Structures are given as C-alpha cells and as structure tokens.
Write the structure tokens for this entry.
Amino acid sequence: MAHVVVLGAGLSGTIMAYKLRDALGAEHQVSVINKGPEYSFIPSNPCVAVGWRDREAVTADLAPIFAKRRIDFHQ
Ligand SMILES: Cc1cc2nc3c(=O)[nH]c(=O)nc-3n(C[C@H](O)[C@H](O)[C@H](O)COP(=O)(O)OP(=O)(O)OC[C@H]3O[C@@H](n4cnc5c(N)ncnc54)[C@H](O)[C@@H]3O)c2cc1C
C-alpha cells in the first residue's frame, strides 16, 4: 500500500489530491497537510480587498471537503 502525502492545500495541492484519489485504488492512502483549516481562492483576493466579494465567498473549510472524498486532512 502506498501513502501519498500532498503538502499544501491551495489550487495545486487540492487538485493534485483529488486526481490522486481518483487514480489510486482504495488500498492506497492520500493525505493532505496544510498550514490552515481553509481553502482560499487566491485569484479572488483583490475582489475581497476592494469589497466586491465577501471573504466567506472565496474560502471553504477543507476538513469536510476532503473527508467526503476519503482524503485524510491534517492542519
Ligand atoms: C490576484 C491574483 C490573480 C490570479 N489569477 C489567476 C488566474 O486567472 N489564472 C491562474 O491560473 N492563476 C492565477 N493566479 C495565480 C494562482 O492563484 C496561483 O498560481 C496559485 O494559487 C498557486 O497555487 P499553489 O497551490 O501553488 O499555491 P497557493 O494557492 O498559494 O497554496 C499554497 C498552500 O500551501 C499552504 N502552505 C504554505 N506554507 C505551508 C507550510 N509551511 N505547511 C503547510 N502548508 C503550507 C498554504 O496555506 C496554501 O493553502 C492569480 C494570483 C493572484 C494573486
């Protein structure tokens, strides 16, 4: 059994974890380690800064999202 660990749950790490989960069989483990508990859609930061979007609209709690996909998440 392989245990693949993805460091960082930004755009790259999150997509990589999803792709690995889809590509690897259930006997293999995929884990993600991230600095914080939330995903943040970086390209929208300027919109938050000028008040065009709320911070809540561009962030998401990572734990339930990864749990749904059988990806271990460690903050
Ligand atoms: C204003 C703006 C607009 C953009 N528009 C576009 C666009 O239109 N199209 C496009 O393709 N790209 C765009 N980009 C670029 C895009 O946002 C980045 O290329 C992308 O976010 C990089 O993804 P990443 O996963 O490498 O890094 P990030 O998204 O920065 O993710 C890094 C992750 O690693 C975590 N981390 C950091 N340090 C640690 C640590 N020590 N331990 C654990 N976790 C850690 C962070 O918490 C974060 O979750 C834009 C960027 C900006 C700023």
